[in-house]
């Protein structure tokens, strides 16, 4: 899989799938979640409500999919990242699951290109450098015959700098 780094707004990315850093309610929120629901329109929320009604709240690390609504992306994969509470071992495993489960779901949808935001590094306060290492490791360790490209979309300068440095290594 090719890895690409982009600085910007994930709602503008033309990938088969973009990943949303959602919360367990699946009903939207702030940060990238708010941006995706605003840009994608009501269809995404309606589908999230349907999923909620069918299976209840979404657990940390669990991935569910909706269409992209008005977004250029075909699918939105909603994942719930861990809230940082200082437990590095547990938090790291949960965050790794987020990337792994998103990639597995993407593969089952025959997605060729997928874009990730920096899950958990905003409102959920996960340390950015540790989160980036986990994200890059999970993607590099995932072998796929289907997914061709993974795009890390960094919104803030700090994350972009961290990813640029780690991806150079
Ligand atoms: N495009 C790409 N990345 C973005 C965008 C955007 N438009 N907007 C923000 N980011 P956060 P979390 C970056 O807080 O930490 C929500 O309320 C941001 O700079 O969106 O997983 C949910 O509903 C940061 O690096 O998600 C949950 O309640 C990254 O996205 C909670 O926040 C993640 O920040 C989830 O918190």
Structure in a nutshell:
This protein is an alpha/beta fold and 169 residues long. It contains five helices and six strands; from the N terminus they run ββααββαβαβα.
Question: What's the layout of helices and strands?
Answer:
Layout: E1 2-7, E2 17-22, H1 31-40, H2 42-55, E3 63-67, E4 75-80, H3 88-108, E5 113-116, H4 128-141, E6 149-154, H5 157-168
Parallel strand pairs: 1-6, 2-4, 2-5, 5-6
Antiparallel strand pairs: 3-4
Ligand AR6 binds near residues 10, 22, 29, 118 and 153.
Commentary on this structure:
There is one protein chain. The protein has helices at residues 31-40, 42-55, 88-108, 128-141, 157-168, and strands at residues 2-7, 17-22, 63-67, 75-80, 113-116, 149-154. It has 169 residues and is of the alpha/beta class. Helix 3 packs across helix 4 and helix 4 (128-141) crosses helix 5. The chain is globular, with a radius of gyration of 14 Å. Strand 3 and strand 4 (75-80) form a beta hairpin. The protein has 5 helices and 6 strands. The structure holds ligand AR6. Ligand AR6 is lined by residues 9-11, 21-23, 29-33, 35, 81, 117-124, 153, 155-156, 159. Residues 1-169 form the Macro domain. It comes from Chryseobacterium indicum. InterPro entries: Macro_dom, Macro_dom-like. This is O-acetyl-ADP-ribose deacetylase.
Main sheet: strand order: 1-6-5-2-4-3
**Residue windows where pLDDT falls under 50 for at least 5 positions:** none
Bound molecules: ligand AR6
What is the number of helices? Answer: 5
The gyration radius over C-alpha positions equals 14 Å
Largest sheet: 6 strands, mixed
The overall pLDDT, averaged over residues, is 98
Q: What's the count of strands?
A: 6
> How far from one another are the termini?
17 Å
**Judging from the principal axes of the Cα atoms, what is the shape?**
globular
What fraction of the residues are assigned to beta strands by DSSP?
15-25%
Helix percentage range: 40-55%
- What is the chain-wise order of helices and strands? EEHHEEHEHEH
Content-based structural category: alpha/beta
Organism: Chryseobacterium indicum
Protein name: O-acetyl-ADP-ribose deacetylase
InterPro entries: Macro_dom (IPR002589), Macro_dom-like (IPR043472)
Domain Macro: 1-169
